[in-house]
Predict the 3D structure of the following.
Amino acid sequence: MTCLSPAELEARLRLHCLPQLGPKRFRRLFSAFDSASAALSAPASAWRALGLPASSAAARRCDEVRERAAAALAWLEQPGQQLLMFDDDNYPALLAELDDAPPLLFVQGDARLLERPQLALVGSRNASRPGLQTAEA
């Protein structure tokens, strides 16, 4: 993983948790600011100038976003869990070619396998219990 300060890692996770901030908008923030920390610190007017939704800017400091980022950090502390970010050398090369590639990949297991041919299973963020069981099988 790219060597980031703990504050920058948390900032990236907080951006990832914001409503209405998908991959393209996430990258737009990184084009405008040098870091996730700088993006989070920028005034809401700077976000509006980039065409980002007011709801995204408003949610930056809400407790729910901080809690979700803290939960992601706790997940990352478990053995075999890692985070690959769009600017990481280990981010899958073919995936990085997509305009809307996810900026963060939460990986459980050997991340090197992501470079091999594979089948993707796409689902919702709020998967059903049977969906989770299928994904874990």
Summary: The two ends are 27 Å apart (CA to CA). The chain has one domain: 6-110. Residues 63-76 form the longest helix (14 residues).
